[in-house]
Specification:
single chain, about 130 residues, mainly alpha, 7 helices, about 0% strand, binds zinc ion, transmembrane helix, Transmembrane transcriptional regulator, Znf_put, transmembrane
Length: about 130
């Protein structure tokens, strides 16, 4: 390894805007390794555009975390688990057959729609 290559290796890699934004999720969840988080932060320090994007993203995540969580009704949870177990037992072929036969009950869509509406509202009301 010559001197140039060594310098290249020791230099902190500069993240592109795109790479930085792709890491927002992991940064918000505090799942980035320390050195990677440092790279993202240093890009944010030098880039107003990404900094602004991060502010929007992290404030949205924060608000979503404050939204009250709802548990699935116990009857639904146990039905889902029963099906999961059955599918494991009968394998993939059976799984495809079951998808063709079963239709999702409409009730399942309600909490999903509410979650989507709350999410959309939060995103749109972000400053
Ligand atoms: Zn940037």
């Amino acid at each position: 390894m010559n001197g140039f290559q060594r310098r290249l290796r020791d230099m902190p890699a500069q993240l592109s805007h795109r790479e930085t934004r792709a890491l927002f999720i992991a940064l918000a969840d505090e799942e980035l390794p320390a050195d990677k988080a440092k790279e993202v932060r240093s890009h944010l320090d030098g880039c107003g555009e990404c900094q602004q994007g991060w502010q929007h993203y992290s404030s949205t995540v924060l608000r979503l975390r404050q939204v009250e969580k709802h548990k699935a009704p116990p009857a639904l949870a146990s039905r889902v688990m029963t099906r999961v177990k059955r599918q494991r037992r009968f394998g993939l072929k059976r799984l495809h057959l079951m998808h063709a036969q079963y239709r999702l009950p409409v009730e399942i869509l309600i909490p999903l729609l509410i979650a989507a509406a709350v999410g959309a509202f939060l995103v749109m009301s972000a400053p």
